[in-house]
Amino acid sequence: MALVWVMLGNLAAMEAVMLLVLPAPGLDVLHRVLSSFTRGLLKPLLSVVPLCLFLLLDIHWKYETRPSCELESWCPPTVRLRDQKSVLKSQRNAFLIGTALAFYWLLYSVAHMVVKIEQLNQLLARLKDRDSRAVCGGIRKQTKWRLRG
């Protein structure tokens, strides 16, 4: 089970790095490659959601079935210490699950915003190009008309 937690931690770290790099301004070619790479990874990374739900169920099951002492005087210190360590690990793992899910959601949102921005930039470039051709054509027509008149 420890390997799953290591994998989830690495996945959350990878999502965080992609979140930092994706919206950063930089070279257009590199930005396009990172954008397409991130969009390609979104579907396989969606598997983090059921994995996190499974791990949350595992944490809940461990919490519900943990041995507890009826009276504090009956518990030896080693059992109490082991129980406290288990609770701390569960809290750490729940935090890791929350961050992995939050990073995935943020990455999904940022990737879609980057796609929308690219589409709007392309549309703006086409409109500017069309407008500049229309203005240049209008100036030519006006100058020809003035020369004739």
What is the molecular shape? rod-shaped
Count of DSSP-assigned helices: 4
> Average pLDDT across residues?
83
Calculate the terminal CA-CA distance, rounded to whole Å.
Answer: 88 Å
- What share of the residues does DSSP label as strand, in percent? under 5%
Rg, Cα atoms, Å: 28 Å
**Structural class label:** mainly alpha
Strand segment count: 0
pLDDT < 50 stretches: none
- Note the run of SSEs as H and E: HHHH
What is the domain tally? 1
Residue share in helix:
over 70%
Reported for the largest beta sheet, the result is: none
Kindly describe this structure.
There is one protein chain. The chain has 149 residues and is mostly helical. The protein has one domain (2-112). It contains 4 helices and no strands. α1 (2-21) packs parallel to α4, α2 crosses α4 and α3 packs antiparallel against α4 (77-148). It is rod-shaped. The model has no long low-confidence stretch (mean pLDDT 83).
Short description:
The protein is mostly helical and 149 residues long. Helices cover 85% and strands 0% of the residues.
Main attributes of the structure:
mainly alpha, rod-shaped, 4 helices, 149 residues
Topology:
Blueprint: H1 2-21, H2 28-45, H3 48-64, H4 77-148
Helix pairs in contact: 1-4, 2-4, 3-4
